[in-house]
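Following up on my earlier thread - several people asked me to post the actual chain instead of describing it. Fair enough. Here it is, all 200 residues.
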Amino acid sequence: MIGYISGKFLSKKPNKVLVDVNGVGYLVNISLNTFEKLEGKTEAAFFTYLNVREDALDLYGFITTAEKEMFELLISVNGIGPKVALSVLSGIQLPDLREAISSGNIARIISTPGIGRKTAERMIIELRDKINALSHSIELGEESVTQLKTYTVRNDAVTALVNLGYNQKIAERAVRACLDKDPEAKIEDLIKDSLAALNS
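Reply from S.P.:
Thanks for posting it. Predicted structure:
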């Protein structure tokens, strides 16, 4: 199961991006809300959901865990598949969607593409109790991918230093100090700067 990918864009469209991950291109379906957050970026990281069909494997990507969790809730509703769920996420902001489901605002829900009145009613009935648990992650979810990416880069850098013979705790301190100076440092630069600090 592919749960997370990070890489540079080979192409970028409002409904999908092609991401280069170590020489392999992954086609990732995205919502318009996610696409708007990618403006000006040449690379990004996504939490992903792999939909397995008889004739295809479709990968869906989300900038935040909150959007992915909402997507998974939507496809749990009878009559809503991944494409319709992504269309819903494209047509309404996450906090607004949560509020519409929580308050039973059918008119707001059916204003999104692909959702009729009966489906909107099922969505409210099946998700109203579950949706409130998402409120906190919806508010804080914007930083989720950034935090996970930083965590991954830090661990990879520490592992590289340990493999070069450095003590685990010393390596962790050096990497942490370099990340404090440059939180957006790439793995190659982070290892290089950490080595320079350790050898100074």
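The longest strand covers residues 4-13. That should answer part of your original question.
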